[in-house]
Amino acid sequence: MKKLSIILILIILISSCNEKTTSELKLVSKKPNIVLIMSDDQGWGDLSISGNSNLKTPNIDALKTNGASFENFYVQPVCSPTRAELLTGRYATRSGVYSTSEGGERMNTDETTIAEILKQAGYNTAAYGKWHNGMQPPYHPNARGFDDYYGFTSGHWGNYFSPMLEHNGKIVKGKGFLVDDLTDHGLNFIDKNKTTPFFLYLPYNTPHGPMQVPDEYWNNFKDKDLKMKYHGDEKEDINYSKAALAMVENIDYNVGRLTKKLKELKLEENTIIIYLSDNGPNGYRWNGGMKGKKGSTDEGGVRTPFFIQWRDSIIPGTKINTIAGAIDILPTIAKLTGAKLTTNKPLDGIDLSPLIFNCNKKTEDRVIINHWSTKTSVRTQRYRLDHENRLFDMVNDHGQTTDISLSNQQLTDSLIKIKFNWLSETLKFSNESDNRAITLGHPDFEYTQIPARDGIPHGNIKRSNRWPNCSFFTNWKSKKDFITWDVEVLADGIFEVELYYTMKSETPSFEIELSHGEQSLSSKITESHDPPLIGMENDRVNRTQSYVKDFKPQVLGNINLKKGRNLLTLKANEIKGENGIDVRLLMFKRVD
Asked: Domain boundaries in the chain?
């Protein structure tokens, strides 16, 4: 195996140095497996190998020690844009991603994903974790190249201990702590595919809030004096930092489980492992003195660890200072696997393999753009132009303390021009311009979820939390109250409809009507179900996200939907009692 791997690397190096195309790359070895791990809201500094003595991350650190690390690697300031760029090799602003909820997180359906490319190359594909690039097919991961999907497709989740999840569109119940559960599925996938090439994508959900972590990790931090703290004037929430670091240590444990499994199955030499985070830290904590956190286009909000290990192929301890980003992951994986790089749209990213293998080829000067909401910054190899057009020397001033734009006016002006050209070229959608409906009833998929997250409440009805991703609708008081969703049915069909609800015992019955265009369905809910809110019992710090409930499913009946776009409306025909129901989601199952 070692000789075959070396032969493969030599071919890649020759191809890279001679600037041959991917189609000219002839693989003579077994295609390497890919394990791509991405944490959620972990800062660059949340690793012991970054110099943080507050925690221990030996298994993640080993990926850097045993492989290559990009010391200047950039993602976007928040979750869904980074995920879209990783999957497509293109800036998220090109693909319709402009938000983290209510449809703005979706990648356009004409984008090509790395999973689709690898499937065409003969790989079995799976994603387990937080998707955050669209829930309903054709945006769902099963419609974007992944054979198997388990996790949640929203931007955040309300409970990390045995929560409601989905498996290939069907609602299921998780087992244990969520990151452990996702890793269990990853280990099973590796076992099942040990004799065939596979692509395993593990987008973990931590250390994103709510700040929940098992006792064995929290106990390492709850009474600990953090020696390394945030350097700036903003106030650090110490308990929040402790919870985040405890969650990262849990991730490290699970990375260790994955690398151990690969060793046991003798797959380590034929498996490429990649590790990164999706944005900067979700709080002010130690991050190497960089400015900014999650949501910021400054260095601390967008710089992430990026490690790539391929035993006996990548020289251990390789460090690459050249700037790179999430947009480079797709072309790099395609090159390393020999997969044919066929995409519907031109890529923004480049193949990093010449840098990984220390090829003598010199890379061209480039910039990396970081954008979120109304803020855009430009990173060159040495400088960063921030969202206010201030210029910083990132080699000598990585904390961005001294604006040098006045003494470098020509450079500043050129980067401002690059910024505005990029915005005019790539910015496709916004809250005001996005006319994409919620899709329902894709003919190739059995299930479609229509969650409260995507709906609009009317009358007394309220959302359980200002952040919609894991929310539910509550405070249904009268027949004048109703909920609507802007829904496009993609193909005619008969669908069984299941409602996930709660209802107080003092409400004897609730007669409900669901309609879309001229089609409607009426049903009566008579069984009360009034569970308590949950989540706070596992929170280490107060949360900003919605608490959740154990919602009860009830089949409302079948509805015959016609292709077309209309408001999907859920209303009450009769309410007996003073309260209506709380609504978490509607599940449509194609039965024709």
From this structure: 2-356, 368-426, 438-590
